[in-house]
Amino acid sequence: MTLLRLSGLLPVLALAACVPTTARQPQTQTQTVAPPVQVLPPRPAQQLPAPTPSVDWIDAALSAGDWTYRQGGSAAFGPPASPSFVIACTGARIRLERTGAASGSQLTIRTSSEARTLAATPTAGGLVAELAASDQLLDAIAFSRGRFSVEAPGMARLVIPAWPEAARVVEECR
């Protein structure tokens, strides 16, 4: 029986003899080493530029101050001691005055329904423009949606709340 067992192994051994010797030698496995991971220091936080403020007057913050009605047909906006805008009745005309040091001779008034640049006269206290009491720009100021702006070259833009004081001056003057 051992002969029979050996005869069963004989074909396997014959096949093994047919395999080239290089294939039977143990192969050395080469391990591939990953390149070292380079750890970079964390980047400093990028400072993004500050968002540019809206240049649209309708979105700008209101200027500092409050309206004050004055007997005699005028109203002033700004700090009580030194208002930055005055609207006054002078006969049948309305005087608009932007106080401060100006470098031009124009006042631009912007409301929710109208915008107009007015010729203004430089004075020691600022710029003065006059309108007929019936001018539609005065109605646009009175009924502007919450605010209107007053702009003059070389001066900060005023964004003024459309409170009843300005409308009262206009109505009394008419």
How would you describe this protein?
- With 174 residues, the protein is α+β, with helices and mostly antiparallel strands.
- It has a six-stranded antiparallel beta sheet with strand order 1-2-3-4-8-7, with helices on one face.
- The protein has helices spanning 2-18, 21-24, 136-142, 164-173; strands at 66-70, 74-78, 85-90, 93-99, 106-110, 115-119, 121-123, 126-132, 147-151, 158-161.
- It is rod-shaped.
- It has a domain at 58-173.
List the helices and strands and how they pair.
Elements: H1 2-18, H2 21-24, E1 66-70, E2 74-78, E3 85-90, E4 93-99, E5 106-110, E6 115-119, E7 121-123, E8 126-132, H3 136-142, E9 147-151, E10 158-161, H4 164-173
Antiparallel strand pairs: 1-2, 2-3, 3-4, 4-8, 5-6, 5-9, 7-8, 9-10
Beta content: 25-35%
Total count of helical runs of at least 4 residues:
4
Rg on CA atoms, Å: 44 Å
Query: How many angstroms separate the termini?
Result: 137 Å
Biggest sheet descriptor:
6 strands, antiparallel
Instruction: Please bin the fraction of helical residues.
Output: 10-25%
Unreliable stretches: none
Helix-strand topology string: HHEEEEEEEEHEEH
What is the structural class? alpha+beta
Would you count the extended β strands for me? 10
The outline comes out as rod-shaped
| Largest sheet, spatial ordering of strands | 1-2-3-4-8-7
User: How much is the average pLDDT?
Assistant: 80
